[in-house]
Amino acid sequence: MKPRVLVVDNDPEMVSLLARHLEGEGRAATAVTSGAEAVAALEREEYDVVLTDLVMEGVDGWAVLREAQRRLPRARVILMTAFASLETAIEAMRHGAWDYLTKPFKLAEVSLAVDRALDDLRLREENRRLRAEVEQRFSFDRLLGRSKAMQAVFDRLRAVADSDATVLLLGESGTGKELAARAIHHGSARGAGPFVPVNCAAIPETLLESELFGHEKGAFTGADRRRRGLFAEASGGTLFLDEVGDIPPVLQAKLLRALQDKLVRPVGGSEEIRLDFRLIGATHRDLLALVGEGKFREDLYYRLAVIPVRLPSLRERPDDILLLAAHFLARAADALGKPLEGFDEDATAWLLGHRWPGNVRELENVVERAATLARGPRVTRADLGTEFVPETALGGSLRPTLAELEERYIRRVLEETGGDRVAAAKILGVSVRTLQRRSR
Ligand SMILES: Nc1ncnc2c1ncn2[C@@H]1O[C@H](COP(=O)(O)OP(=O)(O)OP(=O)(O)O)[C@@H](O)[C@H]1O
Ligand SMILES: [Mg+2]
Q1: Which ligand 1 atom minimizes the distance to the CA of 179?
Q2: Same fold? 4-133, 141-312
Q3: 185, 200, 221, 331 — which has fewest CB within 10 A?
């Protein structure tokens, strides 16, 4: 299909000249002579490029630009104006125009601007296609990962999805335990049934028992009606007990019985109810250590950990950082309707060097915030807001040497002073010459 260009100008001679020229170059051009017509055209048709005059009566070029961005976020808008100034040019770019032509211009300049816009579109679409392919190949359900470590996790998750066995997901905060639990559920024979997540750490101890196992009407003050409980709600599906290490000892025995015999007795009830659920537990704690300390029942531990699956931390799989970052950026760019292509060199280096104590969740947050702030098309290190990241989380080893710490601290102070060595030396309590020597 020919690339489609919408040409907008109050001057009928101008639009027909431009349209003929573009048609001659193998583009499909639509010519309109007002902003209102342009808006109507944008509602009806798809265009790859919009070439619009800026100063027009009624609906002007800014409005056409806004409308194009709203209706066709992938289209590239080129503004034309006789009233050129640096401010308008900057303003145009800031509002997301792709290019800017100053009248009078040569037709060759128009061709060049349109060609560049089309090349960019092609590149972007190619990238999108490649990314979709990569994500397909390197994913299990909504979990992404190309690293060997994650590929091994996917194999294991696929295998357990086929069974009805109890699974215990281990891993630091933000490593994707809940996503993994959902993936197992979706891939299992229970996939069409309910997936019921419960965060055991978030529910007050006094309520947890009745939340999980249900209660009879009048079982305790406030129990003004009967409740089925989350175990029963998960019937035919999967119950996901998040932070299962936080279950208080008094409830551990009851949980063990539910797991062993698939029977529960609601609070205040006299009869046990038979249940049909699959249990997936998760914890970021060291459950075995809790067993050792007598805080977690050993028999329950072995019931839960029939199949343990550990999700590796992000620092153990640096190969996944850029894949995930690109995925989160593309998602945010789509949501924001912003043309963001990727990360510049500095930003990439920082992403790769950071220790990611909050793992994938932290990466997701950093990238989403950056996407919001970025002026584009490439996310910079400043957009990443690395100054908000706690010092202890900065790149390097968990136990930095004194020299490393000193270097990091000097770097941070220099960043704070915007590179002003005199000010930095004052803060650091050393001479400028000492600072120069140490910060090399
Ligand atoms: N491999 C992955 N691919 C894509 N997104 C991921 C991946 N791992 C985690 N995420 C995303 O990161 C965020 C945190 O994931 P999730 O809630 O599953 O982690 P968690 O291990 O349960 O963390 P916590 O222990 O803090 O509850 C979610 O928004 C999730 O979508
Ligand atoms: Mg979680």
Answers
A1: 18
A2: yes
A3: 221
Q: Cα separation of 353 and 380, whole Å?
A: 15
Q: Are 180 and 320 in contact (CB under 8 A)?
A: no
DSSP annotation of 340 reads -
> Could you tell me if the CB of 284 is within 6 A of ligand 1?
yes
Contacts (Cβ under 8 Å, ≥6 apart) of 38? 6, 8, 32, 50, 52, 59, 64, 67
Q: Distance, CA 127 to ligand 1 centroid (Å)?
A: 25
What is the dihedral angle through the alpha carbons of 325, 329, 332, 337, rounded to the nearest 10 degrees?
180
Nearest CA to ligand 1 atom 23: 174
Cβ of 190 closer than 6 Å to ligand 1, yes or no, is no
State in Å: Cα 174 to ligand 2 middle.
7
241 CB-contact burial (10 Å; exposed 0-12 / middle 13-18 / buried 19+): buried
Contact residues for 361 (Cβ-Cβ < 8 A; gap 6+): 173, 174
How much distance in Å is there from the Cα of 75 to the middle of ligand 1? Answer: 33
Rounded to the nearest whole angstrom, what is the distance from the C-alpha of residue 341 to the centroid of ligand 2? 30
Q: Is 359 in the pocket of ligand 1 (CB under 6 A)?
A: no
CATH topology of domain 316-438: Helicase, Ruva Protein; domain 3 (1.10.8)
Domain 4-133: which CATH class? Answer: alpha beta
Residue nearest to atom 18 of ligand 1 (CA): 176
User: Ligand 1 centroid to 175 CA: how many Å?
Assistant: 5
Q: Average pLDDT across each block of 10 residues of the chain; the chain has 440 residues. List them in order.
A: 96 96 97 97 96 94 95 92 80 88 94 94 84 82 94 95 95 96 96 95 90 88 85 96 94 92 88 93 93 94 94 94 94 84 92 94 96 90 80 50 76 78 87 82
Q: Which atom of ligand 1 is nearest to the CA of 178?
A: 18
**Is any ligand 1 atom within 6 A of the Cβ of residue 171?**
yes
Give CA–CA dist 87/80, Å, rounded.
14
Strand-strand pairing, 342-343 and 273-274: unpaired
For the chain, the distance separating the N- and C-terminal CA atoms, rounded to the nearest angstrom, is: 56
CA 95 from chain center: how many Å? 24
User: What pLDDT is recorded for position 440?
Assistant: 65
Domain range list for the chain: 4-133, 141-312, 316-438
Digit-coded pLDDT (tens) for 256-309 = 999 999 988 888 888 888 999 999 999 999 999 999 999 999 999 999 999 999
